[in-house]
Amino acid sequence: MKELMKKIMRESPVASNGTALACLSLANLLPGRFEGLAALFLLIGIVFLILFISRIFTYSKDVIEEMNNPITASMSGLFPMAIMVLSVHLKPSLGEASSYLWFGALFLHIALILYFTVKFLFKFKIQTVYSSWFIVYVGIVAFSMTAPVFGQQQIGEIIFWFGLAAMLPLSPLVTYRYLKCKNISEPIKPLFSIFASPFGLFLAGYVSSINYVSPTVIKFLMALCLIFYIISFIHIIKCFTLKFSPNFSAFAFPFVISAVGITEAVNYLELEGILVMLSNALTIIATILVAYVLARYENFFVGK
Fold it and tell me: What is the pLDDT of residues 105-160, one digit of tens each?
């Protein structure tokens, strides 16, 4: 058992933080519907984080070396995002102390943006551009979703507008890369699904941290969120037969984030009927996808 744990810790990839993020976010989404399942996903998300944090301290040279890879470096933004969601779960127990964890995660994500910009953006090559770049520059909007929990709504609003400003040039750039440069290796193909996440983030961040919310803007963001959700979902159907890679995390967290965004919008607008059913359906699909990714990770860690 000791050797197995060492093996799992050594092989815990940066991308696994996407699975941690998906589990922790799902644990926020499920209470009131399935309390026991929410607790289970919370526990699993914490385990994934502990494994990766243990790897950072035990195999730090390997982790540092991996940060020279633009894909791994961009996926590393999932770590502070997961820590941020965890801080929300810990607030009832830790009180104000959990805000230090939230701020620590925020500063870590800002440090990642600076590192990634200097390391990769300033040495721009279109071949290194993937949808995982959204995690770096737009993923920080996740903090605007939870900022009011810690009384930091103003910071949340600033983060929201930063993410939106980053999305404007980044979206056509990433789209161009996928349309014009199609030399994408099999392990990287799952990353396309990240297209499903930005507008889910904007939805949740908008209704959480913006003072003057427009119902029209919410509905517009909902439409964009659903369009990119459908496009990404069609893509993952084609990818289910691929050999497993840690990037399968991209089959989980983008769809959880979309479910969170749609649910937040539906609740804020107090919508009923088919849109509530849609919110519930997206939550069920997200749960199934997370369970699928967990099963593939289990085989990756233990089965080989």
Answer: 999 999 999 999 999 999 888 888 999 999 999 999 999 999 999 999 999 999 99
Q: Which of 3, 78, 92, 93 is nearest to 48 (CA)?
A: 78
pTM of the model: 0.93
Q: Tokens 């993952």 label which residue?
A: 236
Which residues have CB under 8 Å from 54's CB, separation 6+?
A: 9, 12
CA-based nearest residue to 256, from 298, 207, 189, 194: 194
Kindly list the structural domains of the chain, giving each domain's residue range(s) and its CATH number in brackets, ordered by start.
Answer: 2-303 (1.50.10.150)
Rounded Cα distance between 11 and 34, Å, is 32
Query: Which burial class, exposed, middle or buried, applies to 304 when counting CB atoms under 10 A from its CB (0-12, 13-18, 19+)?
Result: exposed
Number of C-beta neighbours around residue 250 at 10 A: 34
Report residue 271 CA to chain centroid gap: 26
Buried-state track 226-242, b at ≥16 Cβ within 10 A, e below 16: bebbeebbebbeebeee
The per-residue pLDDT for range 30-61, each reduced to its tens digit, is 876 678 899 999 999 999 999 999 999 888 88
Is residue 118 classed as helix, strand or coil in its secondary structure? helix
CA separation for the pair 195, 178 (Å, rounded): 11
Tell me which residue has tokens 């301290």. 57
